[in-house]
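TEACHING EXERCISE
Course module: macromolecular assemblies
Task: Read the component lines below, then compare them to the predicted structure of the full complex.
Student: A.B.
Group: 4
Components provided:
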Amino acid sequence: MPGNPLTVQLGESDPSRKLNPEDQQRMLEIYGLDKPWPVGYVQWISKVIQGDLGRSITRKQPVTRLIVERIGPTVLISGTALFLTWFLAIPLGLYASARGGQIDERFTGMVLYALYSFPTFVAALFLQIIFAVWLRDTPWELPLFGMSDLPSDAPFFDRCVDVGWHAILPITCQTYVVLAYNSRFIKANLEEVVRQDYIRTARAKGAGPWRVLVHHAFRNTLIPLVTLLGLSLPALVGGSVIIEQIFTWPGMGRLFFESIRERDYPTIMGLTLMFSVLTLVGQLLADILYSIVDPRVNVE
Amino acid sequence: MTALLEIKDLVTAFHTAEGRLPAVDGVSLSIDRGQTLGLVGESGCGKSVTAMSTLRLVASPGRIESGSILFTTEGESIDLVSASEKQLRNVRGGRIGMIFQEPMTSLNPVFTIGDQIAEVVQLHRRVTRSEARTRALEMLHLVRVADPEQRLDAYPHQLSGGMRQRVMIAIALACEPELIIADEPTTALDVTIQAQILDLLSDLRSRLGTAVLLITHDLGVVAETCDSVAVMYAGKIVEQASAAELFRHPLHPYTIGLLQSRPDLDNRDSGPLATIPGMVPPPQDFPSGCRFHPRCSYATVPQCSSESPLLREVIPGHFVRCHFAEEINL
Amino acid sequence: MKQQTNSVTEEIDITKPSQGFWSDAWQRYRRRPIGMLALGLVVFLAIVALFAPAIAGTKPVVCRYKGNIYFPCLGYFNRSWEAPIFTKDKFRGTYPTNLEQKDSQSWAVWPLIFQDPYRRVRENEWPGRRANPSRDKGHPNRFNLFGTDQYGVDIFAKMVHGTTIALLVGFVSMGLAGSIGILVGAIGGYFGGWVDMITSRLTEIVMCVPTLVLILALVAVVEKPTIWKTMAIIGVTGWTGIARLTRAEFLRLRQTEFVMAARAAGAGPLRIMFKHILPNALAPVLVPITFGIASAILVEGSLSFLGFGPPPPTASWGSVLNSARSNLQLWWLVVFPGAGIFLTVLAYNLVGEGLQEATDPRLREAKK
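Instructor-supplied answer key:
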């Protein structure tokens, strides 16, 4: 394995110092790095099943504790982003579908499309330049880094506001891409649904355009929408790695990034497992919601 | 007495990448109260588009370009072509009910049958939810659906094609409309179910006195159920008369051909089935002059290929679109 | 009633020449102006990528030295393609003055812009021109159209050469991903049964891990990150969507009559899969591949941006953005590469969408 954590650590702290061979061997044994990696992998799996994700080598703490510490900030950003996306995408999609082909819809459509192709890290940099550098010393300034500038014994409300202020930029970056994609998805789906025969039946009954859209069409769009919900979780997680790194936000994404740099394998594996589990949970959730929303599907 | 529905010179065209395709090219029809008019023709002749145009349900890129559709009810006439959205919505489902061809896809899969029938009642009458539901149950009884109480809460995918079509009929009749437009209601169903549905329709008609515009390609159905018949070809009406008259004395070569091509059970050894040579021309390739002339065995050059014949009343009450209608039938 | 024997029956000509599928799709694609614009951009980028050394560089495009013709600019693509004679004669990469001094008969055709993507241009390297400014003084100017980074390396040259890298990343990684995806999907879709189960589970497992996470994990394992290893990693993680689509297409086409005819004629599975089914399944699969190119460029940009890309000095757009992180006051470090990535990704996304609309079988049905 290229550069085990001990050498990396030592290399960073003092390039001239070197562990003598016996000490190195002993430390390798403690962290299980001395065995060939298939054996190590199997050992890791057996420990995981027992709920033990191992110890972080660089931070000298159980991986589980690290994850628990970091999960909150990530959920704050990613969770809010997820909520905002859905909250805003549905009306955007409905509006785009209702006003399809008109000038204002085409313009918004183009803007959304451009947003969708706009890389998050570039947007993050742009936003940082605008809000932290150009608007410095103005009331519009937003903080560049970290989650909070106040010490932990500052009043709770003030700390909340401060965290919120810090969170604005990261949340914006997380939200806009998924928002653009989702609203286009909803619009495309609605357009497809509206072509169906049962929509014609609804209009033949005398239903007005809004009722047709919101009651008949949208209810049918919910089905693929719910699947999309499950699938957007991994994207959110992946995005959080970059965003948290740019804004120095102390979340799981940043932990993942740092542990890769430090070659902290237990943490890397623990986090990868965590992310995969989240993905699976997301898909499971989507499946359950799907069976609720579509009467043609039987709940198992 | 004014007719219940009077379509005058209706033109509905589709504007596609291949140009302007006039699917309905100057069609005039009229239906009286309680009367059943059959609109017959092969696939692609424009009869479905005519039906859709009546309620302005033509799918884009189709558009009603000219003509009028006068619907007279309670002493008032409105022109459905130029009526406002609000007026049109009043008519749709409330005064004119429509039954579509595809029962499998015409019902919304995520709502129950009961909800879908109740919806049309709630759209046109001030009723409570439970009153609407009661009415839905009544309608299910009316259309002879077995186990109506249970079916109320069933979803469309749990019913067969025949039952779904009954539900569609229930929806169409729920608000006691004066006219029902049935667009090939039995084409997508099994033959045995077809008979049942047609029976049901006849029965309902006689009980409720509803007028019916029946779109079909099946001459047998028309003969059994319709008071008057209009034959459509390539976007135009080519013959129109009472059912009895049309079947006894068909005047247009196309109608003659259609009637001759029906298999005759009583005359099995009369040789191969007569057919009309050629195919229905697509709207982008309508022939010049009389649109039927390439397939017509009576067509004579140059008149038939250069002059478009008008719909004329050759015998009182019997209209034909042919230059030589009188000569052919003497 | 007696029928007259026919006098006039026109023959209705129902045959129209049938267009090939691809020319039909191209016709449909052409109708969208924005699709054509995007395609134009894609072609433009390809040209830039191909001719990068001739557009910006400090090595002559072609020169005559001591009686022979050389193409030193090719050294930008590959070190060994720069003729050894220049090392022997101790040029040390500085061509203008050396050429003149060492051979008065020499001539050279220079790139459009005399700048280097890997190093700072020194004082008088090009006779009469000062050295590249750096840091705060490095904003866009006459010699540095897009400015310079904190070390004085010209950004325009980096952008131009970065185009080559970006497109290379896109095509190579998607080539790899496409090959893997098509193979896995085809095998699963065609053979069905337990083979399909295995390939589907495999696809699902790889899909389960968020792509970026997987990529980063792999990057951690790889020793010395080079651009080629990055491409391989992206390729090896990005095939799942393609596999799923290929599988669906193969499942569908397996039932068609022409496949059954081929089997009845005795063709073996490999032949059927690759000669008969694949050409028909290709059209919908090209769509995710196109989107994949956009996504691969994006991923490479992110990786370089995070610092996981190939080590400096590289000319990739992402690495310029990386240096922007610690130099936020140098706005040109963000605007140009940012616009570059954005426009490239946008162009490929638009082309992919246009392709999707042009080849969508359902839309073809709706036209009837």
